[in-house]
């Protein structure tokens, strides 16, 4: 006849379970076991473990310890979740090597913190900073001096068209110096296209104005920049920003006209419509008067030439 389960068998199971749990991590040991204790013996009911013998207990323990369905491992416990740390955005830190584009990675020499800074390193550092922040007057002068010494223009390769808008906004003086050197290369069209497409601002107009007075820029670029600037002023909804940009564009156009950088006849319709649209602004009215004055001067010159020709021709035929 089978021997009923007694306290000794139950203690044996507990000891086995405790011994096995010692090998598990603390997170597993702190979980709630998914083994439900036997129901207590109620009046009128037989004990639930009445028919379990020593062999049955041994089989139960072996089954509990078997893998992969170990009840001790499948305990009910909380899920420990950790949030992934944010990436450190720092250009001075190490980056993952991308073997697909080896040209992106360049060797760096003399990188010890106690080493003397070389001119190349100073130039590269200042260029990297110029894309992120406005440089001091002293740093700008140092950077300009180093650019003049860099006769091979080896460091201009890091000034990509994508970085040019930030350079113009933070350091327009440096942008002018670099663009003056890039004008001699075959990649200048990509940089000029970026200037045309970038957001209209005081610094961008300053850069274009300085370039137009220093070198001969492509005519189609200057005309396209003017047309886009006029169109931008018409699309701005904020009245304060609109008036501010209109004043800047008017002063910019007056400078181009007075310095005879653009041919007004080629853009006369666009500039005249711009002045009429914003005639309430003083600078626009002044630009409109300048246009009319130029028109009168050209008409007077043409009329004088025509009169002189007619007089000369009439003198040869006398009644």
UniProtKB/TrEMBL annotation:
Disordered: annotated segments: 300-319
Lineage top rank: taxon: Eukaryota
GO biological process, one term: regulatory ncRNA-mediated gene silencing
One Pfam family from the record: CNOT11
Compartment annotation: Cytoplasm; Nucleus
Keywords linked to the UniProt accession: Cytoplasm, Nucleus, RNA-mediated gene silencing, Transcription, Transcription regulation
Low complexity bias spans: 300-311
Nucleus as UniProt keyword: yes
GO cellular component terms listed in the entry, alphabetical order: CCR4-NOT complex; cytoplasm; nucleus
PANTHER family reported in the protein's UniProt record: CCR4-NOT TRANSCRIPTION COMPLEX SUBUNIT 11
Family, as annotated: Belongs to the CNOT11 family.
Protein name: CCR4-NOT transcription complex subunit 11
């Amino acid at each position: 006849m089978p021997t009923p389960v007694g306290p000794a068998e139950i203690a044996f199971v507990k000891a086995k379970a405790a011994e096995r749990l010692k090998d598990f991590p603390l997170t597993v040991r702190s979980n709630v076991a998914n083994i439900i204790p036997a129901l207590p013996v109620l009046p009128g009911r037989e004990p639930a473990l009445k028919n379990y013998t020593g062999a049955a207990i041994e089989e139960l323990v072996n089954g509990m310890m078997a893998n992969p369905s170990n009840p001790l491992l499948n305990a009910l416990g909380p899920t420990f979740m950790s949030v992934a740390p944010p990436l450190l955005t720092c250009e001075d830190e190490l980056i993952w090597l991308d073997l697909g584009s080896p040209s992106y990675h360049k060797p760096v020499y003399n990188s010890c913190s106690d080493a003397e800074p070389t001119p190349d390193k100073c130039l590269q550092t200042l260029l990297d900073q110029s894309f992120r922040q406005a440089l001091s007057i002293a740093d700008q002068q140092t950077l300009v001096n180093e650019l003049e010494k860099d006769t091979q223009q080896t460091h201009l390769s890091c000034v990509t068209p994508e970085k040019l808008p930030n350079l113009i906004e933070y350091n327009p003086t440096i942008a002018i110096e670099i663009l003056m050197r890039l004008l001699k290369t075959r990649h200048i069209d990509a940089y000029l296209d970026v200037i045309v497409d970038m957001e209209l601002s005081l610094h961008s107009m300053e850069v274009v104005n300085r370039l137009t007075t220093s070198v001969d820029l492509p005519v189609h670029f200057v005309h396209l920049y003017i047309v886009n600037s006029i169109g931008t002023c018409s699309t701005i909804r904020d009245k304060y920003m609109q008036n501010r940009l209109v004043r800047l564009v008017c002063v910019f156009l007056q400078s181009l006209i007075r310095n005879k950088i653009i041919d007004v006849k080629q853009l006369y319709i666009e500039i005249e419509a711009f002045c009429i649209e914003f005639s309430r602004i003083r600078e626009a009215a002044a630009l409109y008067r300048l246009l009319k004055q130029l028109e009168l001067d050209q008409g007077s010159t043409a009329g004088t030439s025509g009169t002189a020709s007619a007089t000369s021709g009439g003198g040869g035929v006398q009644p």
